[in-house]
Amino acid sequence: MKLHYERIDATNQSLGRLASRVATLLRGKTRADFDPTKIPPMAVHVEHARRVRLTGKKPAQSFVYRFSGYPGGLKKTSLEDVWKKSPETVIRRAVTNMLPNNKLRPRLLRRLMISP
Predict the structure, then answer these.
(1) How many independent structural domains does the chain possess?
(2) Residue 64 in domain
């Protein structure tokens, strides 16, 4: 089965709308033969990740959480700090949260490529 590559230019697109579009393409919902139990032959390449628009006060007021699994192990980082370090991480997390939480999610995310 041959993969179809979809290129998306992220310049001046808002983060949520971009992530929603990428998640829809990764699941294959735009195809006529959509099946929620199958992985479509589709890969998505997001270009110019640094040029994504974060609207309003979102960079300062949104946080990215990590939990180590130990008591007191919840780490909180502002979206602004994570964005400065790696905008690819922010986009990948947004797309991850828009995909269904099942066994297909990690396999779908392997078909997502993000370039700065």
Answers:
(1) 1
(2) no
